[in-house]
Amino acid sequence: MRVAIAGAGAVGRSIAGELLENGHEILLIDKAPTAISVERVPLAEWLLADACEITSLDEAALQRCNVVIAATGDDKVNLVVSLLAKTEYGVPRVVARVNNPKNEWLFNESWGVDVAVSTPRLMSALVEEAVSVGDLVRLLRFSHGDANLVELTLPPEAALAGTRVGDVEWPEDTSLVTIIRGTRVLTPNKEDALEAGDELLFVAAQSREEQLEDLLSVRREDTAD
C-alpha cells in the first residue's frame, strides 16, 4: 500500500516508521528544508514541497496513493491537504491530525477527511482507558456514517462475562472488532466467550454508545430482578 504523509515532523516520522515496518510504501512531504531528515527514515521517499499546492501533489503522484495522512502541526494545512487529496486525486482514505480540539468539528467529509485524530483527545482517552473499567471510552471518530471507535473493559460483575459473542444481542449499527485479552489480540468469532477484564473494541454509531455501555456494564445482580 502506498501512503503519502504530509508533515515530516516527529508525528509524521513516527507514523512513517511504523508503516514501513509493516511493509508499506511511504512518501514523506514537507516544505521546510530542516524537516527533510532522510537519515531518520531512510527507507521512505522524501519530497521537499508544499503539500497545499497542486503542482507539489502532482509531483508526489498522489493519485497513486491508497492513503494520505495530513500530519502537520497546522490544522489549516491539514484541512487543505485532506480536501485536495479527496477531491482532486480521489484518494480512497484520508486521515487528518487535529492539533486544536476546538477545530475538530471541521474535520469531516466536507473537507475530505475520513478519519480525524485529535492528539490531545486521544491521549486523554488512553488515560481514561487505562483507569476505567466498565466505562465506554471513545478513542477515534470516523467522519463517514457518524461512527466512533470505542473501548470498554468488561468488569468482573458484568452479566455478559462468560457469554458467547454469538449469543449477545448487540445494538444495531455496532460491530465488535477486537478483543484484547492480556497480551493476546483476538479476532472475535461467535463461539468466543467474553471474559471479565477483556478490552472490547467496537466501531459503533454515536447514537448507540449509551445503549452499548448499558449492555456491557449491567451487573449480575441487576439481571436477577
TrEMBL record:
Q: Which residues form the RCK N-terminal domain?
A: 1-117
Q: SUPFAM superfamilies from the entry?
A: NAD(P)-binding Rossmann-fold domains, TrkA C-terminal domain-like
Which Gene3D superfamilies does the protein's record reference?
A: NAD(P)-binding Rossmann-like Domain, Regulator of K+ conductance, C-terminal domain
The answer to whether the entry has keyword Ion transport is: yes
Q: Which GO terms describe its cellular component?
A: plasma membrane
Q: Which GO terms describe its molecular function?
A: potassium ion transmembrane transporter activity
Lineage, top-rank taxon, reads Bacteria
DNA-binding found in the keyword field: no
Q: Which Pfam families match?
A: TrkA_C, TrkA_N
Q: Where is the RCK C-terminal domain?
A: 137-218
Q: Known PROSITE patterns for this protein?
A: RCK_C, RCK_N
The alphabetical list of record keywords is: Ion transport, NAD, Potassium, Potassium transport, Transport
> What is the designated name of this protein?
Trk system potassium uptake protein TrkA
